[in-house]
Design goal:
It is a single chain. With 159 residues, the chain is an alpha+beta fold. The protein has one domain (36-157). The protein is 42% helix and 32% strand. It has 1 helix and 6 strands. The chain has one helix at 2-67; strands at 72-79, 83-88, 97-104, 111-123, 132-141, 152-157. Strands 1-5-6-4-3-2 form a 6-stranded mixed beta sheet. Strand 3 and strand 4 form a beta hairpin. It is rod-shaped, with a radius of gyration of 27 Å.
């Protein structure tokens, strides 16, 4: 009788182990898919926030550039998580150009948020890489610091 009781317990334990294994095999892919979806939504949210910050900088640069030197304005921008670097202007022409680029890191690859400005822009916002709110000094220059032969709107963080 004792052997029969032990055999019954082992069979019950084995059945429970198999049932739990099947449950885990079904639940694990669902958890992985949910994790990927949350990661994608965080990346999308960061992209939208970076687009807002880039558009704000572009709008202020256009306004300040249309007024001409010595016009300047302080602008507050919110940097989302995942921003690796911010490029102002164009690295091919001594830092003067017509674009503002936010480089975002993601799980899969880097993405770039780009806005166009009708005025020449240049600047150094490369030090802003952590999440937070920053003040940026946007000023019209008759001689751009990166290329003194052209006028531009120069951007730099307020320290």
């Amino acid at each position: 009788m004792l052997g029969h009781n032990l055999k019954f317990r082992l069979q019950s334990s084995l059945e429970l182990l198999i049932t739990l294994s099947f449950g885990l095999a079904i639940l694990l892919p669902i958890v992985i898919i949910a994790f990927i979806q949350v990661s994608n939504s965080n990346t999308s949210l960061s992209s939208v926030e970076a687009q807002q910050a880039a558009s704000k900088l572009s709008s202020v640069a256009t306004l300040v550039g249309s007024e001409g030197a010595p016009a300047k304005q302080l602008v507050q921008i919110n940097i989302p998580p995942g921003v690796e670097s911010i490029y102002i202007g164009n690295t091919m022409t001594n830092g003067v150009g017509h674009v503002i680029i936010f480089k975002l890191a993601s799980v899969v690859n880097a993405s770039y948020i780009t806005t166009y400005t009708p005025v020449n822009v240049s600047g150094n916002l490369g030090g802003i890489t952590s999440q937070g709110t920053y003040l940026v000094n946007v000023s019209a220059q008759t001689q751009c610091p990166g290329n003194p032969t052209v006028s531009c709107v120069y951007m730099q963080p307020v320290v």
